[in-house]
């Protein structure tokens, strides 16, 4: 067969497969909608992360290895995210404006199909979820270079919300402006953390150009979108959102900069087999109090992944401890550990059990 005929034949086969895929996607969407009706009647949450995890690992097993695994995961993740919206419109609040890293985290977790609501402050995100105007919220909690986002931890003691998930987002900074030309830059604007993280690059490539602080990387991008003399340091999503060009990508001085975000909602998901549990505790003011509180986990071989103290507002020199351990509260060993821990604390609050997020590669 001539090359031209062969090409036509293969393309016809691909067109045939695409028709099937689109038809099957429609069928899958309708089935998800029917499942949604049953969930609504029995007052069950639409989002079922343990079922999603089960589906994803089955899909990866089904793959004969020809199709690249990461792409399969991304495509299937988006299919499930979209089918979820057939059950319930997913309204997700995040720390805005559009194209912040919180927005990137929200898209990574909920997919493109959700309805995203940018808000001005972390407290506003908690407020929106508690009021029920949004089902979920996405807030930053910790950066691998700058440390904890204290306003997120503090908000947990003011609102009765649960953690439903965590997302790790690699923080890659791009220098963006209207033309993509470095010669046009008279000023560089960004969030103080982003400016600090690109200090060496700026000194080397733009030594005489002044910098200015903005309240977020996305605000800086908005600014650059209206002023051709300004360049912003922001995410690649910001460049896309505000129609800007990339002068230089990945200008951060250290690679591996990652931010951990929390997904907050009204209830925590069921166990998935690889979960984390977050707690807030306060201690009696006596020697060995913290040691006694943590012993129940040590004895059971439960791994504590984080402990952080925050001052109690209005009570000088008293502290709350935020603790993350591996495991789900519905696992007996975790439940027992927490029960025993509660005997030696003056206050213990369960913030949620949720699937461990994937660290960026
Ligand atoms: O199996 C379910 O419970 C569904 O609702 C279907 C589905 C999916 O599309 O695969 C959608 C949403 C849930 O979070 C889990 C899975």
From TrEMBL:
So which domain of life are we looking at?
Bacteria
Query: What's in the keyword line of the UniProt record?
Result: Amino-acid biosynthesis, Aromatic amino acid biosynthesis, Cytoplasm, Isomerase, Lyase, Multifunctional enzyme, Phenylalanine biosynthesis
Main localisation: cytoplasm
According to its UniProt record, the EC number is 4.2.1.51, 5.4.99.5
Is Ribonucleoprotein there in the keyword field? no
> GO biological process: any one?
chorismate metabolic process
Where does it live in the cell?
Cytoplasm
Which SUPFAM superfamilies does its entry note?
A: ACT-like, Chorismate mutase II, Periplasmic binding protein-like II
Named in its record, the pathway it takes part in is: Amino-acid biosynthesis; L-phenylalanine biosynthesis; phenylpyruvate from prephenate: step 1/1; Metabolic intermediate biosynthesis; prephenate biosynthesis; prephenate from chorismate: step 1/1
Catalysed reaction(s)? chorismate = prephenate; prephenate + H(+) = 3-phenylpyruvate + CO2 + H2O
Instruction: Note the InterPro entries from the entry.
Output: ACT-like_dom_sf, ACT_dom, Chor_mutase/pphenate_deHydtase, Chorismate_II_sf, CM_dom_sf, CM_II_prokaryot, Preph_deHydtase, Preph_deHydtase_CS
Molecular function (GO) terms for this protein are: chorismate mutase activity; prephenate dehydratase activity
Look up keyword Cytoplasm and say if it applies.
yes
Briefly, what is this protein's role? Catalyzes the Claisen rearrangement of chorismate to prephenate and the decarboxylation/dehydration of prephenate to phenylpyruvate.
NCBIfam families recorded: PRK11898.1
Q: What is this protein called?
A: Bifunctional chorismate mutase/prephenate dehydratase
């Amino acid at each position: 067969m001539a090359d031209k005929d062969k090409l036509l034949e293969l393309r016809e086969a691909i067109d045939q497969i695409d028709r099937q895929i689109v038809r099957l996607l429609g069928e899958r969407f309708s089935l998800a909608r029917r499942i949604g009706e049953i969930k609504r009647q029995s007052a069950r949450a639409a989002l079922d992360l343990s079922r999603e995890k089960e589906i994803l690992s089955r899909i990866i097993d089904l793959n004969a290895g020809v199709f690249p695994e990461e792409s399969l995961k991304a495509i299937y993740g988006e299919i499930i995210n979209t089918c979820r919206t057939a059950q319930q419109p997913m309204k997700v609040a995040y720390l805005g404006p559009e194209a912040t890293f919180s927005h990137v985290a929200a898209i990574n977790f909920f997919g493109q199909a959700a309805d995203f609501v940018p808000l001005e402050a972390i407290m506003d995100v908690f407020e929106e979820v508690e009021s029920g105007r949004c089902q979920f919220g996405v807030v930053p909690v910790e950066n691998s270079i700058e440390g904890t986002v204290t306003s997120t931890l503090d908000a947990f003691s003011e609102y009765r919300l649960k953690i439903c998930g965590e997302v790790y987002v690699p923080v890659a900074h791009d220098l963006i402006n209207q033309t993509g030309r470095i010669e046009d830059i008279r000023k560089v604007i960004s969030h103080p953390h982003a400016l600090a993280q690109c200090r060496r690059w700026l000194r080397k490539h733009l030594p005489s150009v002044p910098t200015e602080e903005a309240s977020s990387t996305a605000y800086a991008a908005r600014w650059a979108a209206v002023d051709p003399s300004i360049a912003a340091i922001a995410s690649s999503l910001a460049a896309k959102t505000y129609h800007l060009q990339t002068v230089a990508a990945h200008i951060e001085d250290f690679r591996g900069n990652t931010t951990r975000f929390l997904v907050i909602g009204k209830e925590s998901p069921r166990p998935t087999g690889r979960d984390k549990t977050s707690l807030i505790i306060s201690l009696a003011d006596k020697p060995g109090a913290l040691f006694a509180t943590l012993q129940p986990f040590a004895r059971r071989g439960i791994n504590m992944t984080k402990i952080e103290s925050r001052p109690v507002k209005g009570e000088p020199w008293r502290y709350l401890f935020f603790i993350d351990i591996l495991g789900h509260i519905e696992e007996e060993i975790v439940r027992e550990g927490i029960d025993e821990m509660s005997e030696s604390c003056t206050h213990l609050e369960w913030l949620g059990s949720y699937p461990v997020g994937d660290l960026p590669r």
